[in-house]
Amino acid sequence: MAREILVSGASRGLGYCIASSYLKAGESVHMIVRKRTDAVDELENTYPMCHVYLGDVGSDAAIQDALSKLREKVEVFDLIYNVAGIFWEKDRKGLTYLDIDEMADMMNVNAFGALRILKGLAGQIKEQTRIVNISSESGSLTNCEERGMYSYCMSKAALNMATRQYVREHGDRRNIITVCPGWMRTDMGGAQADLDPMFSAGEIIRLAEHMDELEEGALFFKYDGRKLPW
Ligand SMILES: NC(=O)c1ccc[n+]([C@@H]2O[C@H](COP(=O)([O-])OP(=O)(O)OC[C@H]3O[C@@H](n4cnc5c(N)ncnc54)[C@H](OP(=O)(O)O)[C@@H]3O)[C@@H](O)[C@H]2O)c1
Q1: Mean pLDDT, the chain, as a whole number?
Q2: pTM, full prediction
Q3: The domain 4-222 belongs to what CATH superfamily?
């Protein structure tokens, strides 16, 4: 029987690769996208078990409709991939040029977006549900090598803490991880990046499918399964 998989940020990049991989494998995939694209329409036309929901994880109001449709449609999710994320090139310019009020927009998507989904679908998250939050090594307090990139790095560090808090709240149950997908050739990563997003998608799916085998107590991983420090 097909499993129920949710992917946010599925219109392009890593989210699209994860969603299309599961569709090809015959699973039932629920894609949250901000807008329809030809690629999304093509998936929907090709795979009867492709379900598309319009929603923006960046605010409670903009995601409510998608969440209520998902609650009606799905009893229990097997896997949830929180992939939706944003990055601004201008974030590289340091504190002098930082618009601190505007940083809230990035926190809203990169850190709070996953929480909106986990909160809104709490009734559809059961013992078997596995959750993957897509973070970044830039959100590691120890490993981050960026300089003056406040918004993005802080938002991913906050997503990591959200993951930790979720685990603490739910009795340290091993059903959620936060994963850095590596530097990928997507709109966000650019053409010079190291990795094909389909490769990262495959590695992350492998981690999610073998979550029980990951190091006990560890939550933050690189796409290849290496544990990352907070
Ligand atoms: N690329 C990298 O090298 C890299 C490295 C480390 C971590 N990551 C993380 O990996 C994830 C995927 O990145 P990517 O490279 O695939 O990025 P991407 O190509 O820019 O795609 C981002 C996806 O997120 C969606 N999205 C953005 N804001 C959203 C919102 N408010 N609500 C719903 N969907 C939203 C976009 O939808 P629209 O089409 O509507 O904009 C798009 O589908 C992100 O969380 C990113 O931070 C990426």
Answers
A1: 96
A2: 0.98
A3: NAD(P)-binding Rossmann-like Domain (3.40.50.720)
